[in-house]
Write a structure and sequence with these properties.
Chor_mutase/pphenate_deHydtase; EC 4.2.1.51; alpha/beta; 5-stranded mixed beta sheet; D-Maltodextrin-Binding Protein, domain 2; Alpha-Beta Plaits; 10 helices; elongated
Length: 324
């Protein structure tokens, strides 16, 4: 270890615990988090609160699932809590097992503990295999499994959990691969306080939240046009109620590209002029590392040339239009 590395202060990362969650698996993908302090929390609000208060340098939270869409509690937290930036995204393929205390059989199960998102992803299997079950929500799937050991003994209780749960608890696996979609993926984001943006890589994503100015026909179309007219693809568009009155919505947007890309920067300027409230959440490398695709008409050079042309018109300077 170099002297600089040895003297660097330890960094702290918050994640939804306890140990063994999918969120921990996402955090394990962050190279700079290896060997640092990992702090388990009970929910998204606590994780982001750690970052805001300075108890943690960053927090890993689930933001979107390929089956259920956006994680509303995370989206709403990012829309309302101050001074947060997404600095990276990570994908985790999710599958689940049904577990119970030793000696329990599948036909004895009457109650299933599980995180609401995981429960929704396993609902068809559960309805077929355990048709008369009741559901008890849990803060995480590992917590659901741990709750099986609460006293007094709970006969007929089972839990939805990650496959590695048996490494942490003495449990019997009643069924494997119980998720309704075998290709389910959860997208996680690493959130920190505002600072230097990750550099553009050519395979980037920009996240923001924007409110519609008024509830009228065409308002959403005008928001979308800020991106389409600049050749910026949106990989996510979800609405969330502002909460102060009916008909008021904010939109969670993921746009392909980096804020330092001319087309993305110009789109954000358009959104800023259009929306009464815009929250920039960050520009960061895409988890899949797939290069952003866009038409050559929206390259940086085209935007820069257009500004040079306009400046020449204003100043009266001679200007030779470059070949395209």
């Amino acid at each position: 270890m170099s002297e600089a590395a040895a003297s660097a202060p330890e960094r702290t990362y918050s994640f939804l615990g306890p140990r063994g969650t999918f969120t921990e698996a996402a955090l394990a993908q962050v190279p700079e988090a290896v060997g640092q302090a990992w702090r388990t929390v009970n929910n998204v609000g606590e994780a982001l609160g750690d970052v805001i208060a300075g108890r943690s340098d960053a927090a890993m939270i689930a933001i979107e699932n390929s089956v259920d869409g956006g994680v509303s509690v995370a989206q709403d937290a990012l829309a309302t809590l101050p001074d947060l930036r997404i600095v990276g995204e990570y994908l985790v393929h999710v599958n689940f097992v049904l577990v119970a205390r030793p000696g329990t059989t599948l036909d004895e199960v009457t109650v299933v503990n599980g995180h609401p998102v995981a429960y929704a992803q396993c609902r068809k299997w559960l309805d077929a295999a355990v048709p008369d079950h009741a559901h008890i929500p849990a803060s995480s799937n590992v917590a659901a499994a741990a709750d099986l050991f609460d006293e007094p003994l709970r006969p007929g209780h089972a839990a939805i959990a990650p496959p590695g749960i048996v490494e942490h608890y003495d449990l019997d696996v009643l069924a494997r691969d119980i998720g309704d979609n075998k290709n389910a993926v959860t997208r996680f984001v690493l959130v920190s306080r505002p600072g230097v943006l990750p550099a553009p890589t050519g395979a980037d994503k920009t996240s923001l939240i924007a409110e519609l100015p008024v509830d009228r026909a065409g308002a959403l179309l005008e928001l979308l046009e800020q991106f389409s007219t600049r050749g910026v693809n949106m990989s996510l568009l979800e609405s969330r109620p502002v909460g102060d009155e009916l008909g008021r919505y904010r939109f969670v947007i993921d746009a392909d590209g980096h804020i330092l890309d001319e087309r993305v920067a110009d789109a954000l300027l358009g959104v800023r002029r259009f929306s009464p409230e815009v929250r920039f959440l960050g520009s960061y490398p895409r988890a899949d590392r797939v290069p952003n695709d866009y038409d050559d008409r929206y390259s940086d050079a085209v935007f820069i040339e257009a500004r040079d042309w306009l400046r020449a018109l204003i100043t009266g300077e001679p200007y030779d239009t470059p070949e395209r």
